[in-house]
Amino acid sequence: MSSRPPILVTVTLTPSEYRPFVCAAHRLRRILGTRAPKACTLIQANLRGRDARGLAEDYLDVIGLPPAQRRPKRTLPHGHAKFGRAVRPPVDPSRN
What's the pLDDT tens digit per position in 42-58? Predict the structure, then answer.
């Protein structure tokens, strides 16, 4: 089994975006001592092990989309009646 090389991502944060990670690292240092992660490790921990649904839900929370509007838009298949294909009447089982 071959392992894939990691993907390098560069993220630019403003000081106000970076500050919560620094403060969290400081809080953890008071609790965990030398085992506490640094701010960069906390950022990596937030990015790892996420599933697509969780990421999407978090983004929708950030932009403030109401839960009622969070259902994915589904496209109709081309053979659907809405596209003009004739709909068959129900078959009478006694006529078999």
Answer: 999 988 988 998 898 88
